[in-house]
Write a structure and sequence with these properties.
The structure is a homodimer of 140-residue chains. With 140 residues, the first copy, chain A, is mainly alpha-helical. Chain A contains eight helices and two strands. The radius of gyration of chain A is 15 Å and the shape is globular. The two termini of chain A are 29 Å apart. The C terminus of chain A is likely disordered. At the A-B interface, helix 1, helix 2 and helix 6 of A face helix 1, helix 2 and helix 6 of B. Chain A binds a DNA duplex (30 and 30 nucleotides) through helix 3 and helix 4.
DNA sequence: AAATTTAGCTTGCATTATGCAAGTAGATTT
DNA sequence: AAATCTACTTGCATAATGCAAGCTAAATTT
């Protein structure tokens, strides 16, 4: 676990993974504008490190040569249970961000939620699993 | 989740929680000597912050006035699923630390493992759930 | 086709966190 | 009473982070 935390143990990495996983983010801009307030240099650094760690990949968008698409790898999507448990824990003990009722439901159906998350990843379905919740909306 | 990561998102906090949860650590010394190489000032700082966050409590050991005992709170033990999933993910994708066969078994019996973890916590049973694995033993 | 905007960064600099070695106070052991 | 042990703290060097600004190439607007 200490190796995992060398990689993921910081303020931002898991948040990026979550946004890729659960919110359908793909581009640099989406992360930058997500309202969590990550600085662009740090974001660039984390994306590079996550790529180096094999958690995500980058590819150019064919329809718009400026844009890059970040996408979780198999190794990255395998973090779904970690992310889900953290979301559940946070909802129970810390945050009011994600609507509590929704999270209670998710906690009751972990397997279904994980299956759906993986399905969307496989099919490249960018529909967010969770509605946006951030500084802009309701998260405290 | 961003609030959770403000608290837990660093190299050491979750490692401390894991050691309390799964290895039966209780005292400052045990953490210091665990071989992960945390500096004593950082350890003191993290223990203070985790206490402030309501994840652990401190009490003096009655038999030895020098020693303090750190112990997870309910909120702390509720991190067990997060820790377990991180352990499983790490075993699958990163580390050779915890014997892989053991982790595969745990992955198959998540509920039982969590129940046993909670039982030990409730009964203050300090028996480690996992054998030591660290720089001193096998973890890379 | 020139000008503007957009996307994904980088750079410079100030602030903060981390790591290391050493030291300290109080309790305990010898 | 001297030595040892536990849980720290302190000082200082180095690394990571945050902020504002700038930069380049591709796309869009005029």
């Amino acid at each position: 676990m200490s190796i995992s935390l060398e990689m993921l143990g910081d303020r931002w990495s898991l948040l990026i993974v979550r946004d890729l996983m659960v919110r359908g983010y793909r581009t640099f801009r989406e992360f930058e504008r997500s309202g969590e307030g990550i600085a662009s240099n740090i974001l660039a650094d984390r994306l590079r490190k996550l790529e180096a760690a094999g958690i995500l990949t980058v590819e150019a968008e064919e329809t718009d040569g400026r844009k890059l698409n970040y996408r979780l790898t198999e190794k990255g999507i395998d973090l779904a249970p970690v992310v889900l448990e953290l979301l559940i824990w946070g909802a129970r003990h810390e945050e009011t961000g994600a609507p509590c009722a929704v999270m209670v439901e998710m906690a009751k159906n972990r397997e279904a939620v994980l299956a759906e998350t993986r399905r969307r990843w496989q099919e490249r379905d960018p529909t967010p699993l969770l509605p946006p919740f951030g500084k802009d909306s309701t998260e405290k």
